[in-house]
Inverse folding.
Protein backbone atom coordinates (compact mmCIF):
# COMPACT_ATOMS: atom_id res chain seq x y z
CA UNK A 1 0.00 0.00 0.00
CA UNK A 2 1.52 3.33 -1.02
CA UNK A 3 1.91 6.05 1.56
CA UNK A 4 -0.81 8.69 1.39
CA UNK A 5 0.31 11.93 -0.25
CA UNK A 6 1.85 14.48 2.08
CA UNK A 7 -0.11 17.72 2.40
CA UNK A 8 1.85 20.56 0.73
CA UNK A 9 1.88 22.65 3.94
CA UNK A 10 3.58 19.78 5.82
CA UNK A 11 6.12 19.18 3.07
CA UNK A 12 6.88 22.91 2.81
CA UNK A 13 7.42 23.16 6.58
CA UNK A 14 9.70 20.11 6.55
CA UNK A 15 11.68 21.54 3.62
CA UNK A 16 12.43 24.70 5.62
CA UNK A 17 14.16 22.61 8.35
CA UNK A 18 17.81 22.81 7.31
CA UNK A 19 18.73 20.31 10.04
CA UNK A 20 16.74 17.68 8.16
CA UNK A 21 18.71 18.44 4.96
CA UNK A 22 21.96 18.22 6.96
CA UNK A 23 20.83 14.79 8.17
CA UNK A 24 19.86 13.81 4.60
CA UNK A 25 16.39 13.12 5.97
CA UNK A 26 13.20 12.88 3.94
CA UNK A 27 9.57 13.02 4.98
CA UNK A 28 8.09 9.70 3.85
CA UNK A 29 4.53 10.23 5.04
CA UNK A 30 2.54 12.47 7.38
CA UNK A 31 -1.19 12.16 7.84
CA UNK A 32 -3.82 11.19 10.36
CA UNK A 33 -1.61 11.60 13.41
CA UNK A 34 1.29 9.52 12.07
CA UNK A 35 4.48 10.57 10.28
CA UNK A 36 7.54 8.72 8.97
CA UNK A 37 11.00 10.16 8.34
CA UNK A 38 13.89 8.30 6.70
CA UNK A 39 17.58 9.18 7.01
CA UNK A 40 20.88 7.54 6.02
CA UNK A 41 23.96 7.20 8.25
CA UNK A 42 25.94 10.08 6.73
CA UNK A 43 29.64 10.52 7.58
CA UNK A 44 28.91 13.79 9.42
CA UNK A 45 26.36 12.53 11.98
CA UNK A 46 28.44 10.09 14.03
CA UNK A 47 29.51 9.67 17.65
CA UNK A 48 33.02 8.65 18.67
CA UNK A 49 32.64 4.98 17.63
CA UNK A 50 31.17 5.60 14.20
CA UNK A 51 27.54 4.88 15.07
CA UNK A 52 24.91 7.58 14.61
CA UNK A 53 25.01 10.24 17.33
CA UNK A 54 22.12 10.29 19.82
CA UNK A 55 21.19 13.65 18.26
CA UNK A 56 20.40 11.88 14.97
CA UNK A 57 17.93 9.40 16.48
CA UNK A 58 16.56 12.22 18.64
CA UNK A 59 16.32 14.64 15.72
CA UNK A 60 14.39 12.39 13.35
CA UNK A 61 12.28 10.90 16.17
CA UNK A 62 11.33 14.32 17.52
CA UNK A 63 10.60 15.65 14.03
CA UNK A 64 8.47 12.63 13.08
CA UNK A 65 6.48 13.13 16.29
CA UNK A 66 6.11 16.82 15.45
CA UNK A 67 4.71 16.19 11.96
CA UNK A 68 2.44 13.49 13.37
CA UNK A 69 0.98 16.17 15.66
CA UNK A 70 0.90 18.83 12.92
CA UNK A 71 -0.96 16.47 10.56
CA UNK A 72 -3.97 16.68 12.91
CA UNK A 73 -3.99 20.47 13.12
CA UNK A 74 -5.81 22.95 10.93
CA UNK A 75 -4.00 24.85 8.18
CA UNK A 76 -2.01 27.80 9.50
CA UNK A 77 -1.06 26.23 12.82
CA UNK A 78 2.48 25.29 13.75
CA UNK A 79 3.79 22.97 16.40
CA UNK A 80 6.80 23.11 18.73
CA UNK A 81 8.34 20.48 20.97
CA UNK A 82 7.74 21.36 24.63
CA UNK A 83 9.64 18.35 25.93
CA UNK A 84 10.64 14.90 24.85
CA UNK A 85 12.46 11.94 26.34
CA UNK A 86 14.50 9.37 24.48
CA UNK A 87 15.63 5.90 25.55
CA UNK A 88 18.45 4.58 23.39
CA UNK A 89 18.17 0.80 23.02
CA UNK A 90 21.05 -0.08 20.68
CA UNK A 91 23.84 1.70 18.80
CA UNK A 92 22.59 3.54 15.71
CA UNK A 93 24.14 1.27 13.10
CA UNK A 94 22.48 0.39 9.80
CA UNK A 95 22.08 1.43 6.17
CA UNK A 96 19.38 3.88 7.10
CA UNK A 97 17.04 4.84 9.91
CA UNK A 98 13.32 5.22 9.96
CA UNK A 99 11.52 7.27 12.58
CA UNK A 100 7.81 6.67 13.06
CA UNK A 101 5.98 9.32 15.08
CA UNK A 102 2.42 9.01 16.33
CA UNK A 103 0.00 11.08 18.36
CA UNK A 104 -1.15 9.31 21.51
CA UNK A 105 -3.51 12.09 22.55
CA UNK A 106 -4.20 15.15 20.43
CA UNK A 107 -5.18 18.31 22.25
CA UNK A 108 -5.98 21.94 21.68
CA UNK A 109 -3.21 23.01 24.08
CA UNK A 110 -0.92 19.96 24.25
CA UNK A 111 -0.47 16.86 22.12
CA UNK A 112 1.16 13.81 23.66
CA UNK A 113 3.32 11.96 21.17
CA UNK A 114 5.53 8.90 20.84
CA UNK A 115 8.12 7.90 18.29
CA UNK A 116 10.17 4.82 17.49
CA UNK A 117 13.43 4.86 15.55
CA UNK A 118 14.39 1.74 13.63
CA UNK A 119 17.73 0.88 12.01
CA UNK A 120 17.33 -0.87 8.68
CA UNK A 121 19.98 -3.07 7.06
CA UNK A 122 18.73 -5.05 4.06
CA UNK A 123 15.50 -6.63 5.26
CA UNK A 124 16.54 -6.43 8.92
CA UNK A 125 14.73 -3.93 11.17
CA UNK A 126 15.95 -3.19 14.70
CA UNK A 127 14.44 -0.65 17.09
CA UNK A 128 17.24 1.59 18.34
CA UNK A 129 15.32 4.29 20.23
CA UNK A 130 11.91 5.16 21.63
CA UNK A 131 10.69 8.64 22.46
CA UNK A 132 7.77 10.07 24.44
CA UNK A 133 6.95 13.76 24.66
CA UNK A 134 4.70 16.77 24.34
CA UNK A 135 4.05 19.06 21.37
CA UNK A 136 2.40 22.47 21.73
CA UNK A 137 0.53 24.26 18.95
CA UNK A 138 1.82 27.76 18.32
CA UNK A 139 0.76 30.65 16.16
CA UNK A 140 3.11 30.98 13.25
CA UNK A 141 5.58 33.83 13.35
CA UNK A 142 4.07 36.85 11.58
CA UNK B 1 39.80 32.06 35.71
CA UNK B 2 40.83 30.00 32.71
CA UNK B 3 39.19 26.64 32.12
CA UNK B 4 41.29 23.72 33.28
CA UNK B 5 43.06 21.90 30.46
CA UNK B 6 41.05 19.12 28.84
CA UNK B 7 42.53 15.64 29.26
CA UNK B 8 43.81 14.40 25.88
CA UNK B 9 41.65 11.24 26.02
CA UNK B 10 38.50 13.41 26.36
CA UNK B 11 39.54 15.76 23.57
CA UNK B 12 40.42 12.84 21.29
CA UNK B 13 37.05 11.22 21.94
CA UNK B 14 35.23 14.49 21.24
CA UNK B 15 37.19 14.98 18.03
CA UNK B 16 35.99 11.62 16.71
CA UNK B 17 32.34 12.76 16.99
CA UNK B 18 31.63 14.00 13.46
CA UNK B 19 28.23 15.27 14.58
CA UNK B 20 30.02 17.81 16.77
CA UNK B 21 32.04 19.02 13.76
CA UNK B 22 28.83 19.26 11.72
CA UNK B 23 27.38 21.43 14.49
CA UNK B 24 30.61 23.50 14.59
CA UNK B 25 30.82 22.60 18.27
CA UNK B 26 33.91 22.79 20.45
CA UNK B 27 34.69 21.26 23.82
CA UNK B 28 35.43 24.22 26.10
CA UNK B 29 36.15 22.29 29.30
CA UNK B 30 35.66 18.85 30.79
CA UNK B 31 36.88 17.92 34.24
CA UNK B 32 35.66 17.01 37.69
CA UNK B 33 32.17 15.99 36.62
CA UNK B 34 31.44 19.12 34.58
CA UNK B 35 31.80 19.83 30.86
CA UNK B 36 31.05 22.79 28.62
CA UNK B 37 30.41 22.74 24.86
CA UNK B 38 30.02 25.80 22.66
CA UNK B 39 28.33 25.91 19.24
CA UNK B 40 27.23 28.61 16.80
CA UNK B 41 23.87 28.82 15.01
CA UNK B 42 25.04 27.49 11.65
CA UNK B 43 22.78 27.74 8.58
CA UNK B 44 22.42 23.95 8.45
CA UNK B 45 21.04 23.28 11.95
CA UNK B 46 17.70 25.10 11.86
CA UNK B 47 14.03 24.24 12.27
CA UNK B 48 11.31 25.66 10.03
CA UNK B 49 11.37 29.17 11.55
CA UNK B 50 15.13 29.68 11.45
CA UNK B 51 15.83 28.96 15.12
CA UNK B 52 18.13 26.11 16.09
CA UNK B 53 16.48 22.69 15.75
CA UNK B 54 15.69 20.84 18.99
CA UNK B 55 18.33 18.31 17.90
CA UNK B 56 21.00 21.01 18.24
CA UNK B 57 20.17 21.87 21.87
CA UNK B 58 19.72 18.16 22.53
CA UNK B 59 22.96 17.21 20.81
CA UNK B 60 25.23 19.62 22.64
CA UNK B 61 23.39 19.19 25.95
CA UNK B 62 23.58 15.39 25.77
CA UNK B 63 27.24 15.49 24.72
CA UNK B 64 28.19 17.93 27.50
CA UNK B 65 26.50 15.63 30.00
CA UNK B 66 28.37 12.66 28.52
CA UNK B 67 31.80 14.30 28.86
CA UNK B 68 30.91 15.45 32.36
CA UNK B 69 30.34 11.76 33.23
CA UNK B 70 33.41 10.58 31.32
CA UNK B 71 35.62 13.11 33.13
CA UNK B 72 35.02 11.12 36.34
CA UNK B 73 35.87 7.74 34.85
CA UNK B 74 39.21 6.01 34.68
CA UNK B 75 41.24 5.96 31.47
CA UNK B 76 40.01 3.40 28.98
CA UNK B 77 36.34 3.65 29.86
CA UNK B 78 33.71 5.03 27.54
CA UNK B 79 30.24 6.30 28.24
CA UNK B 80 26.94 6.02 26.36
CA UNK B 81 23.62 7.79 26.85
CA UNK B 82 21.03 5.34 28.16
CA UNK B 83 18.27 7.92 28.20
CA UNK B 84 17.80 11.64 28.45
CA UNK B 85 14.91 14.08 28.58
CA UNK B 86 14.88 17.65 27.35
CA UNK B 87 12.53 20.51 28.16
CA UNK B 88 12.75 23.31 25.62
CA UNK B 89 12.17 26.68 27.30
CA UNK B 90 12.63 29.18 24.49
CA UNK B 91 13.44 29.17 20.77
CA UNK B 92 17.15 28.53 20.09
CA UNK B 93 18.05 32.00 18.88
CA UNK B 94 21.38 33.69 19.62
CA UNK B 95 24.90 34.20 18.34
CA UNK B 96 26.00 30.97 19.91
CA UNK B 97 24.94 28.32 22.42
CA UNK B 98 26.67 26.97 25.45
CA UNK B 99 25.81 23.62 26.97
CA UNK B 100 26.90 22.94 30.54
CA UNK B 101 26.73 19.30 31.63
CA UNK B 102 27.18 18.10 35.20
CA UNK B 103 27.09 14.80 37.04
CA UNK B 104 24.45 14.71 39.76
CA UNK B 105 25.36 11.23 40.93
CA UNK B 106 28.30 9.27 39.57
CA UNK B 107 28.06 5.50 39.68
CA UNK B 108 29.85 2.36 38.65
CA UNK B 109 26.87 1.20 36.61
CA UNK B 110 24.87 4.38 36.02
CA UNK B 111 25.66 8.09 36.22
CA UNK B 112 22.80 10.53 36.60
CA UNK B 113 23.44 13.77 34.74
CA UNK B 114 21.89 17.14 34.02
CA UNK B 115 22.63 19.78 31.41
CA UNK B 116 21.56 23.32 30.70
CA UNK B 117 21.75 24.98 27.29
CA UNK B 118 22.11 28.76 27.17
CA UNK B 119 21.76 31.07 24.15
CA UNK B 120 24.30 33.89 24.15
CA UNK B 121 23.89 37.18 22.30
CA UNK B 122 26.47 39.79 23.21
CA UNK B 123 26.47 39.82 27.01
CA UNK B 124 22.96 38.39 27.21
CA UNK B 125 22.52 34.79 28.42
CA UNK B 126 19.18 33.00 28.21
CA UNK B 127 18.50 29.40 29.20
CA UNK B 128 16.78 27.68 26.29
CA UNK B 129 16.77 24.05 27.40
CA UNK B 130 17.34 21.79 30.39
CA UNK B 131 18.13 18.08 30.25
CA UNK B 132 18.14 15.24 32.78
CA UNK B 133 19.33 11.73 32.01
CA UNK B 134 21.42 8.64 32.56
CA UNK B 135 24.85 7.70 31.22
CA UNK B 136 26.20 4.15 31.32
CA UNK B 137 29.89 3.24 31.28
CA UNK B 138 30.78 0.81 28.51
CA UNK B 139 33.85 -1.09 27.53
CA UNK B 140 35.39 0.46 24.46
CA UNK B 141 34.97 -1.37 21.19
CA UNK B 142 37.99 -3.64 20.63
CA UNK C 1 -8.64 -16.28 28.03
CA UNK C 2 -7.63 -16.42 31.67
CA UNK C 3 -4.45 -14.67 32.78
CA UNK C 4 -1.53 -17.02 33.19
CA UNK C 5 -0.75 -17.87 36.82
CA UNK C 6 1.62 -15.49 38.58
CA UNK C 7 4.93 -17.04 39.67
CA UNK C 8 5.01 -17.27 43.50
CA UNK C 9 8.26 -15.24 43.70
CA UNK C 10 6.59 -12.34 41.84
CA UNK C 11 3.44 -12.48 43.97
CA UNK C 12 5.51 -12.65 47.17
CA UNK C 13 7.55 -9.62 46.10
CA UNK C 14 4.40 -7.66 45.24
CA UNK C 15 2.81 -8.58 48.57
CA UNK C 16 5.75 -7.04 50.44
CA UNK C 17 5.09 -3.64 48.81
CA UNK C 18 2.96 -1.91 51.43
CA UNK C 19 2.37 1.01 49.05
CA UNK C 20 0.42 -1.36 46.82
CA UNK C 21 -1.77 -2.39 49.78
CA UNK C 22 -2.28 1.29 50.65
CA UNK C 23 -3.45 1.86 47.06
CA UNK C 24 -5.68 -1.25 47.26
CA UNK C 25 -3.77 -2.55 44.24
CA UNK C 26 -3.64 -6.17 43.09
CA UNK C 27 -1.29 -7.93 40.71
CA UNK C 28 -3.52 -9.31 37.95
CA UNK C 29 -0.84 -10.96 35.82
CA UNK C 30 2.93 -10.95 35.36
CA UNK C 31 4.69 -13.14 32.84
CA UNK C 32 6.65 -13.01 29.62
CA UNK C 33 7.63 -9.36 29.92
CA UNK C 34 4.13 -8.06 30.63
CA UNK C 35 2.37 -7.28 33.91
CA UNK C 36 -1.03 -5.88 34.85
CA UNK C 37 -2.00 -4.16 38.09
CA UNK C 38 -5.51 -3.10 39.07
CA UNK C 39 -6.43 -0.47 41.66
CA UNK C 40 -9.61 1.30 42.76
CA UNK C 41 -10.00 5.06 43.35
CA UNK C 42 -9.82 4.94 47.15
CA UNK C 43 -10.73 8.02 49.22
CA UNK C 44 -7.12 8.42 50.40
CA UNK C 45 -5.36 8.67 46.99
CA UNK C 46 -6.83 11.88 45.57
CA UNK C 47 -5.56 15.25 44.42
CA UNK C 48 -7.30 18.53 45.26
CA UNK C 49 -10.23 18.01 42.84
CA UNK C 50 -11.05 14.45 43.85
CA UNK C 51 -9.38 12.69 40.91
CA UNK C 52 -6.59 10.20 41.55
CA UNK C 53 -3.27 11.87 42.42
CA UNK C 54 -0.51 11.65 39.80
CA UNK C 55 1.35 9.46 42.31
CA UNK C 56 -1.37 6.81 41.95
CA UNK C 57 -1.07 6.51 38.15
CA UNK C 58 2.70 6.75 38.52
CA UNK C 59 2.82 4.17 41.30
CA UNK C 60 0.82 1.46 39.57
CA UNK C 61 2.36 2.21 36.15
CA UNK C 62 5.90 2.09 37.52
CA UNK C 63 5.17 -1.09 39.48
CA UNK C 64 3.55 -2.83 36.50
CA UNK C 65 6.62 -1.96 34.42
CA UNK C 66 8.85 -3.31 37.20
CA UNK C 67 7.09 -6.69 37.39
CA UNK C 68 7.06 -6.89 33.59
CA UNK C 69 10.87 -6.60 33.75
CA UNK C 70 11.18 -8.96 36.73
CA UNK C 71 9.09 -11.62 34.96
CA UNK C 72 11.95 -12.01 32.44
CA UNK C 73 14.67 -12.38 35.06
CA UNK C 74 15.95 -15.54 36.72
CA UNK C 75 14.88 -16.52 40.23
CA UNK C 76 16.73 -14.59 42.93
CA UNK C 77 17.09 -11.35 41.00
CA UNK C 78 15.38 -8.13 41.94
CA UNK C 79 14.67 -5.02 39.92
CA UNK C 80 14.70 -1.31 40.77
CA UNK C 81 13.46 1.71 38.84
CA UNK C 82 16.40 3.79 37.62
CA UNK C 83 14.22 6.43 36.02
CA UNK C 84 10.78 6.80 34.56
CA UNK C 85 8.75 9.50 32.86
CA UNK C 86 5.00 9.91 32.91
CA UNK C 87 2.72 11.92 30.64
CA UNK C 88 -0.71 12.47 32.17
CA UNK C 89 -3.38 12.51 29.47
CA UNK C 90 -6.62 12.93 31.42
CA UNK C 91 -7.76 13.26 35.03
CA UNK C 92 -7.66 9.94 36.90
CA UNK C 93 -11.41 9.45 37.23
CA UNK C 94 -13.11 6.06 36.99
CA UNK C 95 -14.30 3.06 39.01
CA UNK C 96 -10.85 1.54 38.85
CA UNK C 97 -7.52 1.81 37.07
CA UNK C 98 -5.52 -0.77 35.21
CA UNK C 99 -1.80 -0.38 34.59
CA UNK C 100 -0.23 -2.50 31.87
CA UNK C 101 3.56 -2.67 31.91
CA UNK C 102 5.68 -4.18 29.16
CA UNK C 103 9.36 -4.66 28.44
CA UNK C 104 10.47 -2.95 25.24
CA UNK C 105 14.04 -4.19 25.47
CA UNK C 106 15.26 -6.58 28.14
CA UNK C 107 18.91 -6.39 29.10
CA UNK C 108 21.42 -7.80 31.50
CA UNK C 109 22.25 -4.33 32.84
CA UNK C 110 19.21 -2.24 31.86
CA UNK C 111 15.67 -3.04 30.78
CA UNK C 112 13.70 -0.43 28.89
CA UNK C 113 10.02 -0.47 29.80
CA UNK C 114 6.74 1.20 29.00
CA UNK C 115 3.41 1.30 30.79
CA UNK C 116 -0.07 2.53 30.07
CA UNK C 117 -2.65 3.38 32.73
CA UNK C 118 -6.32 3.07 31.81
CA UNK C 119 -9.35 4.32 33.75
CA UNK C 120 -12.26 1.90 33.64
CA UNK C 121 -15.92 2.83 34.22
CA UNK C 122 -18.38 0.10 33.35
CA UNK C 123 -17.32 -1.03 29.88
CA UNK C 124 -15.57 2.27 29.12
CA UNK C 125 -11.76 2.30 28.98
CA UNK C 126 -9.81 5.57 28.75
CA UNK C 127 -6.02 5.90 28.73
CA UNK C 128 -5.06 8.43 31.41
CA UNK C 129 -1.26 8.11 31.48
CA UNK C 130 1.69 6.65 29.60
CA UNK C 131 5.12 5.94 31.07
CA UNK C 132 8.55 5.17 29.62
CA UNK C 133 11.58 4.27 31.72
CA UNK C 134 14.49 2.10 32.73
CA UNK C 135 14.68 -0.78 35.23
CA UNK C 136 17.97 -2.10 36.59
CA UNK C 137 18.49 -5.60 37.95
CA UNK C 138 19.93 -5.64 41.46
CA UNK C 139 21.19 -8.29 43.80
CA UNK C 140 18.66 -8.83 46.56
CA UNK C 141 19.50 -7.43 49.97
CA UNK C 142 21.24 -10.13 52.04
CA UNK D 1 15.33 32.29 58.80
CA UNK D 2 11.75 31.12 59.17
CA UNK D 3 9.83 30.01 56.13
CA UNK D 4 7.53 32.67 54.73
CA UNK D 5 3.87 32.09 55.58
CA UNK D 6 1.96 29.93 53.13
CA UNK D 7 -0.85 31.71 51.29
CA UNK D 8 -4.21 30.33 52.54
CA UNK D 9 -5.30 29.36 48.98
CA UNK D 10 -2.18 27.16 48.63
CA UNK D 11 -2.63 25.56 52.03
CA UNK D 12 -6.32 24.92 51.38
CA UNK D 13 -5.52 23.29 48.04
CA UNK D 14 -2.83 21.11 49.63
CA UNK D 15 -5.21 20.09 52.42
CA UNK D 16 -7.72 18.78 49.86
CA UNK D 17 -5.12 16.31 48.50
CA UNK D 18 -5.94 13.16 50.44
CA UNK D 19 -2.87 11.45 48.96
CA UNK D 20 -0.71 13.90 50.90
CA UNK D 21 -2.51 12.97 54.14
CA UNK D 22 -2.04 9.28 53.34
CA UNK D 23 1.69 9.98 52.94
CA UNK D 24 1.70 11.99 56.20
CA UNK D 25 3.06 14.89 54.15
CA UNK D 26 3.00 18.54 55.18
CA UNK D 27 3.49 21.69 53.14
CA UNK D 28 6.48 23.45 54.73
CA UNK D 29 6.65 26.48 52.45
CA UNK D 30 5.34 27.67 49.10
CA UNK D 31 6.11 31.09 47.70
CA UNK D 32 7.99 32.86 44.94
CA UNK D 33 8.28 29.82 42.69
CA UNK D 34 9.60 27.46 45.35
CA UNK D 35 7.82 24.94 47.59
CA UNK D 36 8.92 22.42 50.20
CA UNK D 37 7.06 19.31 51.35
CA UNK D 38 8.09 17.05 54.22
CA UNK D 39 7.02 13.43 54.74
CA UNK D 40 7.98 10.57 57.06
CA UNK D 41 8.65 6.96 56.02
CA UNK D 42 5.30 5.54 57.11
CA UNK D 43 4.77 1.76 57.27
CA UNK D 44 2.27 1.90 54.41
CA UNK D 45 4.42 3.57 51.70
CA UNK D 46 7.15 0.96 51.17
CA UNK D 47 8.47 -1.13 48.31
CA UNK D 48 9.44 -4.79 48.70
CA UNK D 49 12.68 -4.13 50.64
CA UNK D 50 11.25 -1.69 53.16
CA UNK D 51 12.51 1.51 51.54
CA UNK D 52 10.04 4.16 50.41
CA UNK D 53 8.27 3.25 47.16
CA UNK D 54 9.20 5.28 44.06
CA UNK D 55 5.63 6.63 44.18
CA UNK D 56 6.46 8.35 47.49
CA UNK D 57 9.47 10.27 46.15
CA UNK D 58 7.52 10.93 42.95
CA UNK D 59 4.40 12.04 44.82
CA UNK D 60 6.04 14.58 47.09
CA UNK D 61 8.47 15.75 44.37
CA UNK D 62 5.68 16.26 41.84
CA UNK D 63 3.48 18.00 44.40
CA UNK D 64 6.29 20.32 45.57
CA UNK D 65 6.90 21.25 41.92
CA UNK D 66 3.18 21.85 41.47
CA UNK D 67 2.90 24.24 44.43
CA UNK D 68 6.08 25.99 43.33
CA UNK D 69 4.31 26.69 40.01
CA UNK D 70 1.01 27.59 41.67
CA UNK D 71 2.75 30.07 44.00
CA UNK D 72 3.49 32.23 40.93
CA UNK D 73 -0.06 32.19 39.59
CA UNK D 74 -2.88 34.58 40.32
CA UNK D 75 -5.65 33.69 42.77
CA UNK D 76 -8.25 31.40 41.25
CA UNK D 77 -5.91 29.48 38.97
CA UNK D 78 -5.08 25.83 39.41
CA UNK D 79 -2.21 23.79 38.08
CA UNK D 80 -1.94 20.21 36.79
CA UNK D 81 1.07 18.06 35.98
CA UNK D 82 1.33 17.55 32.22
CA UNK D 83 4.39 15.34 32.49
CA UNK D 84 7.28 14.70 34.79
CA UNK D 85 10.36 12.51 34.85
CA UNK D 86 12.11 11.12 37.90
CA UNK D 87 15.61 9.71 38.28
CA UNK D 88 16.00 7.68 41.46
CA UNK D 89 19.53 8.04 42.86
CA UNK D 90 19.42 6.00 46.07
CA UNK D 91 16.93 3.90 48.04
CA UNK D 92 14.42 6.03 49.93
CA UNK D 93 15.69 5.31 53.44
CA UNK D 94 15.75 7.90 56.22
CA UNK D 95 13.75 9.35 59.10
CA UNK D 96 11.93 11.67 56.77
CA UNK D 97 12.01 13.06 53.23
CA UNK D 98 12.01 16.61 52.02
CA UNK D 99 10.98 17.55 48.50
CA UNK D 100 12.01 20.94 47.18
CA UNK D 101 10.24 22.09 44.02
CA UNK D 102 11.21 25.11 41.97
CA UNK D 103 10.04 26.81 38.80
CA UNK D 104 12.74 26.96 36.14
CA UNK D 105 10.61 28.89 33.68
CA UNK D 106 7.14 30.19 34.48
CA UNK D 107 4.73 30.59 31.60
CA UNK D 108 1.18 31.50 30.80
CA UNK D 109 0.61 28.16 29.08
CA UNK D 110 3.35 25.92 30.50
CA UNK D 111 5.65 26.13 33.51
CA UNK D 112 8.84 24.11 33.49
CA UNK D 113 9.71 22.78 36.94
CA UNK D 114 12.32 20.78 38.77
CA UNK D 115 12.32 19.07 42.15
CA UNK D 116 14.83 17.35 44.37
CA UNK D 117 13.95 14.82 47.07
CA UNK D 118 16.29 14.49 50.03
CA UNK D 119 16.34 11.76 52.71
CA UNK D 120 17.10 13.14 56.17
CA UNK D 121 18.49 11.09 59.07
CA UNK D 122 19.64 13.16 62.01
CA UNK D 123 21.79 15.88 60.47
CA UNK D 124 22.53 13.79 57.37
CA UNK D 125 20.95 14.85 54.07
CA UNK D 126 21.14 12.64 50.98
CA UNK D 127 19.55 13.38 47.62
CA UNK D 128 17.51 10.34 46.60
CA UNK D 129 15.66 11.61 43.52
CA UNK D 130 15.53 14.45 41.01
CA UNK D 131 12.57 15.37 38.86
CA UNK D 132 12.05 17.56 35.80
CA UNK D 133 8.67 18.29 34.26
CA UNK D 134 5.91 20.53 33.01
CA UNK D 135 2.92 22.04 34.82
CA UNK D 136 -0.07 23.51 33.01
CA UNK D 137 -2.42 26.13 34.45
CA UNK D 138 -6.05 25.09 34.33
CA UNK D 139 -9.32 26.75 35.11
CA UNK D 140 -10.70 25.39 38.36
CA UNK D 141 -13.60 23.00 38.12
CA UNK D 142 -16.89 24.95 38.38
Amino acid sequence: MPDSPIAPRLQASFDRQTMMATFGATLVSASGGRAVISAPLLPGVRQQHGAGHAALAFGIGDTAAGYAALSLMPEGREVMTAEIKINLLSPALGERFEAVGEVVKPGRRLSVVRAEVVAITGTLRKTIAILQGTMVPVDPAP
